Amino acid sequence: MLRRQFLHLTGLSSTGLLLSGCGASYLADVAGTLTEPFNQKIEELLLKPQTPVPELPISQIEPEQLLINTFGFTPEIDPAKYRLTIDGDVNHPMQLSLNEIYKLPFRSMVIRHVCVEGWAAIVQWGGVPLRELIQLAQPKDGAKYVYFQSADRYYESWDMASCLHPQTLMAYQKNGEPLPIDNGAPLRLAAPIKLGYKQSKWVTRITVRSQLLRNQGYWEDQGYEWFAGL
Amino acid sequence: MTSDSLERQPARLPKLPKQAILAKTFHWINVVSVFIMLTSGLQIYNANPVFGGRQGMHIFPLFTLGGWLAGGRDWHFAAMTLFALNLLWYGVYILVTRRWRHRFVGGNDVKALQVGRSEKRKAYAWHRIIYTAIVPILLLAIFTGIGMYKPAQFYWIVDAFGSWEALRIVHFITVPAVIGFAIAHSLLALKVGGTQLLESMFW
Known about the structure:
The complex is a heterodimer.
Chain A: H1 2-18, H2 22-46, E1 84-88, E2 94-96, H3 98-102, E3 107-114, E4 120-129, H4 130-137, E5 145-150, E6 155-159, H5 160-163, E7 169-174, E8 177-178, E9 188-190, E10 203-209
Parallel strand pairs in A: 1-10
Antiparallel strand pairs in A: 1-2, 3-4, 4-7, 5-6, 5-10, 7-8, 7-9
Chain B: H1 2-8, H2 21-47, H3 69-96, H4 99-102, H5 107-115, H6 119-149, H7 155-160, H8 164-202
């Protein structure tokens, strides 16, 4: 009987093999859809929106461990022409040049960058806390989500509490150097409280919204978990 | 308690073993949830093998569940609550009913192995040692798993293992540990009580 159960269950995974993921992914979707709302509640409860995650010493930075993951191509952006657009449900939509962004409050942190694939790297990021930008734009009442559009057409959406976390940065510095293009120059998201796929590179537009749209993120729309909190 | 009578009269195990309904319930949920945790965990493993990274050896797809990384994570996070809460209520249950005193390994088993003469009693002692030892391994899987699931909120779990890589390796090692246990546990149960004991735990 145990054996039959075993064969039945492995049947599910070999089905996945035969259908190159379709069958198994469908069942996984069902399992995910049934349990993710509960798990997300737990994740939101665990997040301490104002408490910084303990940072690590500079000596522990692991430059070799940070792998480059990109879904498509690497966009070349002219820093002089670059503008960051902040719009949506805000009282003061704006466009900022890099020089204007560099003048905003700077924060540096050494944190663990954790990838959904299972690897992690200790990285130093420097940049402007996202909450400075959001406060400048003054979100309207009921603004609960923030969308990020990237130059390579990658898109992401975050919950507002995570965006206002003191260690959620729009970073332009990595390991003490100007941010390399492969890591998202001129401006990328960096935070210790979300998985790597939430941390968009080459961000060009930040849009505050009161609701989540059907498109929630490049990977989320293919089945990845939306909250992805750490 | 019953331990003394077992020591003296090992041959008098009940002819038709019976298990408490709650013990069977725990066992079933544990078998199914651990199976999902193992196979979906190996699916996640394949996204970036613990040993060797992307160039490392991948797990054969037959042993994985979910089809791809997101599917594996869906299963892993769907089953984790079931797996952990099942262990939790069972822990409360064996404490309240004091089953832990006579249903798990005790001094009498050690004595049986050291000075006992009955081979059957010795096998029984091994059986109890093995199924008691799996409990801390299952708890370790949960502990390291929480550390990997929420390393920012539970940074002290990562710190306790020294590094992310060490935490990953310990979490992964619970997989061969559980598989080895499942084999040893089944064989010992067969040796100690035959198919009757085996069946009694399931139906």
